[in-house]
Amino acid sequence: QVQLVESGGGLVQAGGSLRLSCAASGRTFSSYATGWYRQAPGKQRELVAAITSGGSTNYADSVKGRFTISRDNAKNTVYLQMNSLKPEDTAVYYCAADLIQHGSSWYPDFASWGQGTQVTVSS
After folding, report:
1. DSSP secondary structure string for all residues of 14-38
2. What is the pLDDT of residues 106-123, one digit of tens each?
3. 3-state SS class at 72
4. ∠ CA(37), CA(29), CA(113), 5° rounding?
5. How big is the CA angle at 73 (ends 68 and 75), to the nearest 5 degrees?
6. Could you give phi then psi for residue 87, rounded to 5 degrees?
7. CA distance linking residue 37 with residue 92, whole number of Å
8. Is 98 left (phi over 0), alpha (psi -120 to 50) or beta?
9. For 24-47, what is each residue's pLDDT tens digit?
């Protein structure tokens, strides 16, 4: 397992941008498919974006064209650039490493998780 620490959350107005970072310890991080999940109050956790070790990406329909996931393996860090934020993007965002991919589905059964970072978008 790896240790993950998220940062970059905060309060932003609708239409604004934030960049989340997920810093990992462990030399095997670069080999893990990694994703960003979010959970809003009263709602189920959902996968927002994922990236394979090779850099292939996948996005939830609700964020396509607005969010970009990327990774810097030299820095053991995965990023989530969030643009054109909407109030409905308000949630706690979590980083998860070592996802299992089957086609277009991703499973966090054996994933390591960060502590989460709050993103609040005001209208």
Report:
1. TT--EEEEEEE-STTGGGS-EEEEE
2. 999 999 999 999 999 999
3. strand
4. 35
5. 100
6. -55, -30
7. 8
8. left
9. 997 788 889 999 999 999 999 999
